[in-house]
């Protein structure tokens, strides 16, 4: 009789290899849609396992297919992101980035490695019923690689019925997880506000229309949009992050000024409302000062919202691995954004957080001193393996 697969033991046996893979990826970071080396190495490892490997989905994306040894109609997608950030690394350890201005500062090197580890373990012992799809996605960082993979046939070429993702999370102790029942991360939209006044001499403001004054009132009013339009229990953020105006001269009122920033929310209706209210505030404040103004929105990622039943399944698996005390159920969501949201709009599924340790400089996401915590690689791989076992029974 074949012994039942123990994902924890198998993951720990693979730990040294996973650490080597992870550090190699970290040392050779590649940004959005340029993950050529990373995707090729991923594809090579998957082919060596005997998996059915498909490349070039979403430009540099990779999908590997593994059929379980038992008959079943479950089709489960597991996703990891591969891209690095356009960030200069300040670490000096041996596996620091060898590409100036590029860095794995968000742990995608670890995400890729944990999923590779799970694929290795399951390929060696496919003790499940159904089919698992290992999805290695490019361009998560602000370039919508998930949407590009969907547009290029992810869900039409592969009959994936459920989709799952995972991200390391500083501030959650290593060895623990967090699972949200609904909203996990926020939508994000950028905006450009253009204000047109009537420039002239700063000593004669009564004869001109000052766009800087208009911008100041818009900045102040924008901060009331969330507080006076969303329910107090709902979260949203309107942030003005840049203001441009003036010629550099101290005594000249400029013709124009511009404001730039982002809107974030956790609910699709709130997302729509915040954009409507910002546009109204901008246009009417400008009119009140006899100026004109317009807003251009640059649509970003939607909110990442888990499907409740799928999140409960993830919670059950996580508690098996970390115990009930080691899994946070439905903690406060983050106002950061994640393009896995596009996949959750297409298929039911869930996105969880795995603890990366204290949120110190070396663990803080997007920090130039960040490094993924290699000690959690076995736990992450075990989670993926156990999730497939749990769902594909």
From TrEMBL:
Classification of source organism: Bacteria, Pseudomonadati, Pseudomonadota, Gammaproteobacteria, Thiotrichales
Entry protein name: M20 aminoacylase family protein
Hydrolase as UniProt keyword: yes
CDD domains cross-referenced by the UniProt entry: M20_Acy1-like (cd05666)
Lineage: superkingdom: Bacteria
SUPFAM superfamilies the UniProt entry points to: Bacterial exopeptidase dimerisation domain (SSF55031), Zn-dependent exopeptidases (SSF53187)
Keywords: Hydrolase
Domain Peptidase M20 dimerisation: 190-286
Provenance organism: Thiothrix lacustris
NCBIfam families attached to this UniProt entry: amidohydrolases (TIGR01891)
Keyword Iron tagged: no
Database matches in PANTHER family: METALLOPEPTIDASE, PUTATIVE (AFU_ORTHOLOGUE AFUA_6G09600)-RELATED (PTHR11014:SF63), PEPTIDASE M20 FAMILY MEMBER (PTHR11014)
Gene3D superfamilies with a match to the protein in the record: 3.30.70.360, Zn peptidases
